[in-house]
Structure formats: structure tokens, C-alpha cells
């Protein structure tokens, strides 16, 4: 049984997210600039759109937005991944979804650790996109072996962090003092280290094989490589970024600008070239540089059903058949025009999206529904029709593989495009993780279903949801 003195996982997650944000802000000042810009644009958007403000307030989603962010890390070994899963579990974060990025020329596969369940998400939706390096995709066997040896020797978690994870698992939670130490100790794993654990020569060979391999293998730990605040108007932030001295990538990833936001739109600025030092021949440090950390912003829209997602995937691939965004941004206008045109086929009206079963919605009683009560043997559709029940889009909490690949690519540099044979391997990933990843669609469907049942229950009806 849980003792009262245990701190909730939600609270530990919130504290950790805040600590990570403070650390990254200090390490990468442009992140702080981006945060201020996003806060300003969000405030303006809400001031100009009272309907949006009211819906966010009434669905308890307004508070979470100013605190909302995701980060990303890249791990080197199965042991690191499975320990990371246990660390995140203490914070109420679970692996959702499987993303294969080998198709996009990036030798990793990934999941996102995030809270699951409506209440936890409302409290703090902190997520971490977590990739595992796939040494099996490296052609050079000698280099593969050397990289594996370096990775096998490093310890990315402090002893105290591991102890506290074990304690939390055994006791079913952490008290306030332990939780505070846990946050501080786990933060160490995400810290930037400017001293590499390899020589300049080895770094170069890893880098020549793939930039990402050098990033994962050469350092003491999986430094957080970006933290992404959530904006309510990504086009506006993208347009304002240059004024703040930040150059965004040429195109926004994901769907085009729309009235009804769907899924996820993201944009980033290029990774910084930062001074690091490598192990020299006789123990001295040798100066060099490494490029890994960047900034990103995102706007989140409605979670799509499998039918909606299939339509999205088809339209995105149709767009990319017309124009594929070039890394140097030279065809950005052409790509954006094609994207807007092709996506005209995706309804841009909440009623239509709902009617066609393309998105997930959260149902609640309207003022009328609350005032008059509901009688009779009516289903949810009739209640919507009669104005007793309203619906709000459920926010998409996950990621998109094509967008993620675009974000990776823009940070790997234009010369990094590389071909790998597409080889998704969810079975191997889950074995390394030590657990299955959750299915995002089932999760959204569950939230929608619960909201319908609550409406029908509130109406005192035993009618099953249609
Ligand atoms: C992760 C890139 C993917 C996103 O938001 O899609 C990502 C990485 O660069 O490690 O963060
Ligand atoms: Ni990201």
C-alpha cells in the first residue's frame, strides 16, 4: 500500500521537467529566447481568440500549455534504454509508439516516454523522444566493435539515481526528500559534457560513418539535444524567429496551416557548433568542436483515428511526390504550395472531421445539458444534435516519423543524407527496452470513450456509446 508521504509521480515529473528546462536554458541561451517568444505569441493568440481561451480553460488544458515541453536523447545500448525506462516510470512516463528512422537515413529507432491518461497529461505532459543507436546498421565491422566497446564501458546514470529507482520500485514511490535527490541525480544523465571519452581520431571515424554515431558514442552521457516548447501559433513564431537572431529551418514539418489543427507541426533551428575536447595521445586534451544541440518549437492539433492518420500519411506522401523539401530550403515555397493544395482533401471543419471519423474528441455536457438535464433513451449523437453535449478535439500527444526524420536531418547537415535499407525492428526494440510500447490509438480511443460514458452517465442513462 502506498504511504501518504509519497510524492506523486506527476509531481516528480513536473519538478524534473522544470529542472531540465532551467539547466538547458543556462546551457543553450537561444532556448531561453525561444521560450520567451513562444510565451509572448501564446499570450497574444489567447488574447485575440476568446473562444480558444474558453475551450482550453473549460477542458483544463490552459495551465499545462505554458509548462509544456518535450526533449530528446539518443542512447547507445539496450542496458541504457531499459534503465531509462525504469527512471521515467518513477516520473509516470511510459513508452508510447515505435518510430523507425532508418528509412530516413538515421541509424536509430525510437519511442516517446510520456504520461498516459487524461489527468496525468493535464498535470504535466512532459515527454522525451528517446532513440536507440542501431550499430547493426553500421557497415564497418571494426568500427562497430570499437563503438560497442566504448559504450559498454560508460555509465550514464549515477549510483544514487539507480539506487533511488530501485527504492521507488520496491516501495511503490519516493518520499519528498528522496524525490528531490532523484530529480537532481537523474538530471546529471542529461547534462552536456564538453570532454569527450574518445580520441579525436576515433571521433572522426565515428563521424565519417554517421554524425549521429559520433554524437552517441563520443560522450559520457546522452546530453539532452533539444527542449521544445508548445506554441499556439507556429507560423507566427517561425516568422518572428529571425528578429530574435534565430534562423529557423526552411519549412515547418507536418500538416499545412489550417483552421482546425491536426496532429503536430514542428520547426527547429540548426544545431550549434560547440567547443569540446578529445583525449590526446599522451593524456592531454585536444581542442575540437561538436554539433548536436538545437532548438525546436511545435504546435499540437487533434489526435487522428487510424482512418484520419491514413489520410494524413497518404496526403503527405502525395505532397512529397510533387516536391521534397530540399535541405538548403531552395524549394520551400514550392513545397508549401504543394502541401496546402494536396491537403485541401482533408476536411478543415470540426463537425466534418468528427462526422467522417477522422479525429478523436472529448465530449462534455453543454450549459444547456447541465441546466435541463437529459432524459430519454438518447445516444451521444442525438445529444450533440440537440445541443446538450459538446465536443473538443483531443490533443495529439505523440510524434510523427517523417517530421522527426526532418528534424534529425536538418541538424545533421546537408551532407549527411545516407541510405540505409529500411529495417524497422520493433521486436528488437521492445526486447532492448524490456517492455512493450503502448499503442497511441488505443489510448486516445480510451479517453474519447470515457468522456462519452461520463456524459451518458451524467444523464443517468444506461445507453451504451454508439
Ligand atoms: C530527435 C528528433 C525528433 C521530434 O520532435 O520529432 C524529435 C533527435 O534529434 O534526437 O525530437
Ligand atoms: Ni523534438
**Percent of residues in beta strands:** 15-25%
Class by SSE composition: alpha+beta
How far apart, in Å, are the first and last alpha carbons?
38 Å
Please name the CATH architecture of the largest domain. Roll
Shape: globular
State the helix count: 20
Q: Please list the strands of the largest sheet in the order they lie side by side.
A: 3-4-5-2-8
The average pLDDT score comes to 91
Question: Level of helix content?
Answer: 40-55%
Q: Tell me the radius of gyration.
A: 23 Å
Task: Briefly say what this structure is.
The chain has about 475 residues and is an alpha+beta fold.
Task: Compile the SSE list and pairings.
Elements lengths: L5 E2 L1 H19 L1 H20 L1 H9 L3 H6 L1 E7 L2 H13 L3 E7 L7 E7 L3 H6 L3 E7 L7 H13 L5 H13 L2 E2 H14 L5 E5 H10 L1 H7 L8 E4 L4 H7 L23 E6 L3 E7 L5 E7 L3 E6 L5 H17 L9 H11 L7 H6 L5 E5 L1 H6 L7 H6 L3 E5 L7 H12 L13 H8 L6 H19 L8
Parallel strand pairs: 2-5, 7-10
Antiparallel strand pairs: 1-6, 2-8, 3-4, 4-5, 9-12, 10-11, 13-14
Bound molecules: 2-oxoadipic acid (OOG) and nickel (II) ion.
Amino acid at each position: 500500500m502506498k504511504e501518504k508521504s509519497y510524492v506523486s509521480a506527476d509531481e516528480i515529473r513536473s519538478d524534473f521537467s522544470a529542472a531540465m528546462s532551467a539547466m538547458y536554458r543556462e546551457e543553450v541561451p537561444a532556448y531561453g529566447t525561444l521560450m520567451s517568444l513562444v510565451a509572448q505569441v501564446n499570450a497574444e493568440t489567447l488574447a485575440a481568440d476568446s473562444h480558444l481561451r474558453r475551450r482550453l480553460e473549460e477542458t483544463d488544458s490552459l495551465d499545462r500549455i505554458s509548462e509544456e515541453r518535450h526533449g530528446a536523447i539518443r542512447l547507445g545500448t539496450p542496458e541504457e534504454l531499459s534503465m531509462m525506462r525504469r527512471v521515467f516510470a518513477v516520473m509516470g512516463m511510459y513508452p508510447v509508439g515505435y518510430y523507425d528512422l532508418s528509412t530516413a537515413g538515421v541509424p536509430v529507432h525510437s519511442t516517446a516516454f510520456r504520461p498516459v491518461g487524461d489527468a496525468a497529461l493535464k498535470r504535466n505532459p512532459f515527454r522525451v523522444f528517446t532513440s536507440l543507436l542501431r550499430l547493426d546498421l553500421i557497415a564497418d565491422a571494426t568500427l562497430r566493435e570499437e563503438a560497442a566497446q566504448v559504450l559498454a564501458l560508460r555509465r550514464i546514470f549515477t549510483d544514487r539515481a539507480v539506487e533511488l529507482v530501485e527504492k521507488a520500485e520496491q516501495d511503490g514511490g519516493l518520499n519528498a526528500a528522496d524525490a528531490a535527490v532523484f530529480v537532481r541525480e537523474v538530471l546529471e544523465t542529461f547534462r552536456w559534457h564538453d570532454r569527450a571519452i574518445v580520441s579525436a581520431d576515433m571521433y572522426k571515424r565515428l563521424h565519417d560513418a554517421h554524425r549521429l554515431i559520433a554524437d552517441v558514442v563520443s560522450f559520457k552521457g546522452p546530453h539532452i539535444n533539444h527542449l521544445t516548447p508548445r506554441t499556439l501559433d507556429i507560423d507566427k513564431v517561425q516568422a518572428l524567429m529571425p528578429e530574435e537572431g534565430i534562423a529557423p529551418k526552411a519549412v515547418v514539418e507536418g500538416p499545412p496551416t489550417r483552421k482546425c489543427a491536426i496532429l503536430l507541426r514542428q520547426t527547429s533551428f540548426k544545431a550549434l557548433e560547440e567547443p569540446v575536447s578529445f583525449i590526446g595521445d599522451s593524456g592531454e586534451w585536444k581542442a575540437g568542436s561538436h554539433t548536436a544541440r538545437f532548438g525546436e518549437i511545435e504546435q499540437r492539433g487533434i489526435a487522428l483515428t487510424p482512418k484520419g492518420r491514413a489520410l494524413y500519411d497518404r496526403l503527405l506522401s502525395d505532397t512529397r511526390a510533387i516536391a521534397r523539401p530540399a535541405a538548403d530550403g531552395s524549394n520551400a515555397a514550392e513545397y508549401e504550395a504543394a502541401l496546402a493544395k494536396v491537403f485541401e482533401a482533408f476536411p478543415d471543419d470540426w463537425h466534418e472531421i468528427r462526422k467522417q471519423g477522422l479525429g478523436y474528441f472529448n465530449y462534455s455536457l453543454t450549459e444547456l445539458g447541465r441546466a435541463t438535464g437529459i432524459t430519454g433513451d438518447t445516444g451521444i449523437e442525438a445529444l450533440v444534435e440537440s445541443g446538450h453535449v459538446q465536443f473538443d478535439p483531443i490533443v495529439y500527444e505523440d510524434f510523427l516519423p517523417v517530421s522527426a526524420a526532418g528534424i534529425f536531418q536538418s541538424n545533421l547537415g546537408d551532407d549527411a543524407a545516407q541510405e540505409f535499407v529500411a529495417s524497422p525492428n520493433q521486436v528488437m526494440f521492445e526486447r532492448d527496452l524490456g517492455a512493450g510500447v503502448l499503442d497511441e490509438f488505443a489510448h486516445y480511443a480510451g479517453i474519447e470513450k470515457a468522456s462519452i460514458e461520463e456524459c451518458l452517465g451524467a444523464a443517468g442513462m444506461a445507453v451504451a456509446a454508439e
